[in-house]
Structure to design on (713 residues):
């Protein structure tokens, strides 16, 4: 049940929103769609959902071009959340689930399950306009997933949430992924993306920069990352090294991105000369580092 | 259930449950019932209550013969009972009495009798004013008879000259039928009532469609909907659901009007001409076409904006287009067969009011009705197609309103 985006382009007047983008999301995988603002993420998602039709290229699901019928198997959470303000939360979820081809009784049963999972019981009979923003987000998420979609497209699902609601939504997200749903989601928080997804697609200025499994992408990166903590917290010796990128880490540590032509142990050697090394570890580059290397520092 | 019907049902239920719709429908039905019954009750009251006229006769020669003449007129068919009081004293005192009593009229007669008589009739009530003829007509007869007598004409000859002629006022139609003045007035009121209801239903439900589309854009739910429902089904479902509500409203109002008419007929014992099923169907066809045209134009207008503050700017042109025929209602009511009425009744946007009015008041030639329905149908189809294209293209646009050039671009597809 692979989602395949093949040489897809979209233009709005003078603006090329998406330019010949191709990638695949294998069945049952969670894929992060990354890119700075205006990179073409939302337009790509809308084309997958047939909200916009692509000017060129083909988007297919399960080996066939997506149609109005096959998109009933998709759930969508748009970046700009939207619900009917005067409709009761439960009725709204049922209605949006029915639009995905479920009968009223089936939709009601699934709705009640998600209301329970997202702890929305006491708000189920209230009008959406009477709910807090966090609870509206939960209702929106429930409406997206209650039809048990095969493919879930989530545009910035965690934006605007407080820490508690973020945890609740992350748990719900993991539940959906654990049930075997294919998930394509966008987010600006790269640490969150790294924690949740198995594959990534990176767009920059309407073009595809990279796509594939996160593990493979990290392995293929020319850089390695050293996490270093000195007792003195003085890392001035790193400034003299060419091609090294240093970022502040946690508890006085630093993350050092080491270029491919330098051995990471050289950092350890120099650190030992400079003072007492409290902590040293070697790892793959983070998604943030890969992103910065590919597209620069915009929106990170 | 298809998505189109799901959307239509949601619109029907969501809007139908709203207090705005329920209150508007009840109030409009009650207003219609009231306006149908109120004139009948007022007429009935005024017909059954005697008209009191205080006569201040400064000539000293009119009051008594007038009292006798009024007595002689009593009991004639359609005549209202008149109680005449001959009063004396100063004019201001009698005027004060008339001002304080709205069921009273004051007749002041002065001048030289019979050569230069002046009669002044005063009342605080418009209804009492309408019955001035009950005393002024016999007064006219008395003065003329006295003048003839003064000129040497014998009373017998004078009576013969002043005898009223037989009058018959009838409306004639193309089919050769003729209707009395009261029947003509009745058909005029029926036409006015139906057209006003039709206008209000089309306008109100078009506004509902506008509000619905704008609400979906402002609340951003439109994108969620667009991921499940095609724009054609979204628009059609909305128009159908709200159209069904409009039909319920129309039937409620027509029911109220029919009930009022039946009661009024029972009270006055005067049959009001009811339109036949053929005319009712033509009116219904114009209602459906008018609503479809209005609803899709309203939907298209709403889809071009994304802020509540902008609504007046885009609603105004459509509303003005709909309100334009109302300017011509009075001339068409006065003469439904005039060439102005005939031409206007064939022009789309006007035809849904003017043609309906004409078919309820007179016999419209078949070719005129055919042209009118045909042009309205074509305009409705064109409007639905154009409105649909604008709606589809502008539905997900936010920010700056599209320019006219962009809107024409949407029309090209």
């Amino acid at each position: 049940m692979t989602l395949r985006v093949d040489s897809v382009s979209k233009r709005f007047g003078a603006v090329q929103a998406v330019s010949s983008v191709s990638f695949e999301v294998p069945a049952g995988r969670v894929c992060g769609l990354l890119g700075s603002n205006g990179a073409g993420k939302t337009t790509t998602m809308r084309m997958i959902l047939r909200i916009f039709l692509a000017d060129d290229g083909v988007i297919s699901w399960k080996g066939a071009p997506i149609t109005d019928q096959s998109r009933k198997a998709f759930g969508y959470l748009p970046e700009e959340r939207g619900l009917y303000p005067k409709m009761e939360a439960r009725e709204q979820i049922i209605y949006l689930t029915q639009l995905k081809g479920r009968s009223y009784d089936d939709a009601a049963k699934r709705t009640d399950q998600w209301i329970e999972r997202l702890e929305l019981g006491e708000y189920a009979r209230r009008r959406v306009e009477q709910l807090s923003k966090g609870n509206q987000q939960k209702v929106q998420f429930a409406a997206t997933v209650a039809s048990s979609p095969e493919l879930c497209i989530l545009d910035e699902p965690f934006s605007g949430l407080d820490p508690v609601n973020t945890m609740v939504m992350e748990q719900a997200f993991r539940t959906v992924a654990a049930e075997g749903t294919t998930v394509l989601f966008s987010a600006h928080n790269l640490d969150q993306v790294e924690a949740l997804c198995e594959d990534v697609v990176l767009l920059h200025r309407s073009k595809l920069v990279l796509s594939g499994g996160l593990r493979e992408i990290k392995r293929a990166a020319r850089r390695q990352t050293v996490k270093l903590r000195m007792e003195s917290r003085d890392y001035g010796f790193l400034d003299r090294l060419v091609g090294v990128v240093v970022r502040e880490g946690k508890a006085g540590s630093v993350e050092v991105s080491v270029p491919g032509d330098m051995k990471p142990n050289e950092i350890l050697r120099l650190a030992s000369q400079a003072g007492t090394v409290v902590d040293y570890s070697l790892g793959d580059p983070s998604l943030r580092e890969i992103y910065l290397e590919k597209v620069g520092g915009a929106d990170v | 259930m298809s998505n189109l019907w799901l959307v239509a049902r949601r619109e029907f239920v969501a809007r139908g449950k709203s207090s705005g719709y329920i209150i508007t429908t009840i109030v409009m039905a009650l207003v219609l019932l009231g306006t149908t019954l109120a004139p009948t009750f007022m007429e009935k009251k005024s017909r059954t209550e005697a008209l009191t006229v205080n006569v201040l006769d400064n000539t000293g020669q009119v009051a008594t013969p007038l009292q006798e003449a009024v007595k002689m007129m009593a009991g004639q068919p359609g005549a209202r009972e008149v109680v005449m009081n001959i009063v004396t004293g100063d004019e201001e005192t009698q005027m004060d009495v008339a001002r304080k009593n709205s069921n009273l009229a004051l007749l002041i007669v002065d001048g030289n009798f019979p050569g230069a008589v002046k009669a002044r009739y005063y009342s605080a009530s418009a209804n009492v004013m309408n019955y001035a003829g009950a005393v002024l007509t016999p007064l006219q007869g008395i003065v003329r008879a006295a003048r003839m007598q003064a000129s040497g004409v014998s009373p017998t000859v004078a009576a013969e000259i002043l005898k009223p002629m037989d009058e018959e006022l009838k409306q004639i139609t193309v089919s050769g039928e003729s209707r009395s003045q009261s029947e003509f007035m009745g058909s005029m009121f029926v036409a006015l009532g139906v057209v006003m209801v039709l206008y209000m239903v089309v306008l109100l439900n078009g506004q509902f469609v506008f509000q619905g589309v704008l609400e979906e854009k402002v609340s951003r739910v439109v994108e969620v909907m667009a991921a499940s429902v095609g724009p054609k089904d979204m628009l059609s479902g909305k128009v159908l659901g709200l159209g069904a509500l409009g039909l319920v409203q129309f039937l409620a109002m027509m029911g109220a009007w029919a009930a009022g008419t039946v009661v009024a007929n029972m009270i006055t014992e005067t049959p009001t001409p009811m339109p036949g099923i053929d005319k009712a169907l033509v009116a219904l066809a114009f209602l459906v076409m008018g609503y479809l045209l209005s609803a899709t134009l309203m939907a298209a207008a709403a889809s071009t904006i994304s802020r509540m503050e902008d609504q007046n700017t885009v609603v105004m042109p459509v509303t003005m287009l709909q309100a334009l025929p109302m300017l011509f209602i009075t001339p068409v009511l006065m003469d439904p067969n005039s060439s102005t009425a005939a031409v206007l009744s064939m022009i789309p946007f006007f035809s849904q009011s003017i043609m309906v009015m004409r078919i309820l008041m007179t016999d419209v030639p078949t070719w005129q009705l055919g042209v009118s329905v045909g042009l309205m149908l074509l305009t409705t189809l064109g409007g639905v197609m154009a409105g649909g294209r604008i709606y589809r293209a502008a539905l997900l646009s936010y920010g700056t309103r599209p320019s006219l050039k962009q809107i024409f671009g949407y029309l090209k597809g």
Q: What stands out?
A: Chain A has a mean pLDDT of 88.
